[in-house]
C-alpha cells in the first residue's frame, strides 16, 4: 500500500475531480492516452485500485473526505478529467448514479478509456434491499466457506453458500438469476470475502488495458486478497468469541453483507435509505431492544458526526440504559483524520469496525 501517495490524496478532491457528465469527448486524441492515471468512484474502490496498481497507475478519489460516495453529486467536468486520466473503477448500481452516468458516457464516446465495473460477475452474491439476516444459526458451519478445522478457507470461488432469496421473494441470483439492479443493496465491499472478487476484477481490468504491467497487478492483487482473507478470519474470530448476537446501530442499514457473512444482527431504527424518516415507534422499539439485551454501547455513523453526538444517538441514550457509543464505518468514504493516518480499507476495518463489534457483541 502506497502510503506516500495516499497522504497526497486531494483534501478537497473536488478541486480536480468534481464533475457531471460531459459532452462528446472525441476531441481527445487516443494516441495521447497512456494508462498512468485513473479515478475510482469512492474511497474503498480507490484504495483497492491504488493497492493493485502500485506505482504503475496513480488513482484519485473524487469524493472529498467526510463524504460518502453514494448519493454524492459531482460538479464541473469530472467526465473529461477521467477520460484524460484513462481509467475509471466504479460500481454499476443506481446508488452511484453519477458514476453510472460517467461510465456510460466514457464507453459511448471514448473507447480507449478503461472502465471497470467492480460488480461484474457478482450477481450470485448480491443481496436485495431489506434482506433479512438470520443471526441465530452461527454454529461454526455457516456455509460461508470457512474450513471447519483452521478457518483458512474463505470460500473465494464465487460460491459463498448463502443460498438466500430477496425479501420480496425475488431470486438474488444464486440460482443463475440476476437482480434488478435497483433492488440490490450496493454495500458489497463490506464483506471481506466478496471484496476479494472485486479486487481480482480490478486487477484483471487493469491487466487487460496495460499488459506490460499485468504481472504487477496480479501479484499485488494476490498479496492483498491474502490480507483480506486474514481480515475475514479476524471477523470470524470476533463472532466465534461473542456472547451476544445482536447490537444496535444509530444509522441507516449499510451492514447487511457483513451480518450475512458472519451471522450477527445489527439492529437499526432507520431503514436502508439515509433519507428515510425514523418514527417514534421505531425509536421506542430500539430502546426496548437495548434494555432487553442489556446493550451498553450504541454504534454510530461518524460521517454524520465524528463524535457521535447527533439526535438519533441522543434519543437512544436518553431513553435506554445504554451509556456509551462507538463508531462503525460503512467505508464508502473516509474521514480526514483517518486519511492523514494513512488508513485504507483494511486499516479502517481493523481499527474501527472490528473493535466496535468486539465491544458491542461482548466478544472475548
Quick structural gist:
The protein is of the alpha/beta class and 364 residues long.
Strand order of the largest sheet: 2-1-3-4
Please tell me how large the radius of gyration is: 20 Å
Q: Let me know the number of strands.
A: 8
Number of helical stretches of at least 4 residues: 12
Strand content: 5-15%
What summary fits the major beta sheet? 4 strands, parallel
Under CATH, the topology of the domain at 3-121 and 189-213 can be stated as Rossmann fold
Mean pLDDT: 81
CATH class descriptor name of the domain at 3-121 and 189-213: Alpha Beta
Structural class: alpha/beta
Second CATH tier, the architecture of the domain at 3-121 and 189-213: 3-Layer(aba) Sandwich
Low-pLDDT segments, ≥5 res: 1-32, 137-180
Helical content (DSSP H or I, runs of 4+): 25-40%
Net shape: globular
Q: What quaternary form is this?
A: single chain
Q: How is this structure best described in words?
A:
This protein is an alpha/beta fold and 364 residues long. The protein has a domain at 3-121 and 189-213: Rossmann fold (3-Layer(aba) Sandwich), CATH 3.40.50.1980. It contains 12 helices and 8 strands. It has helices at 3-7, 14-17, 43-53, 78-85, 97-109, 192-209, 214-240, 256-262, 280-293, 311-319, 336-340, 345-360; strands at residues 37-40, 58-60, 87-90, 114-117, 246-250, 265-267, 297-300, 324-327. The strands form 2 sheets. The protein has a 4-stranded parallel sheet, with helices on both faces. Helix 3 (43-53) packs across helix 6, helix 6 (192-209) runs antiparallel to helix 7 and helix 7 (214-240) packs parallel to helix 12 (345-360). The chain is globular, with a radius of gyration of 20 Å.
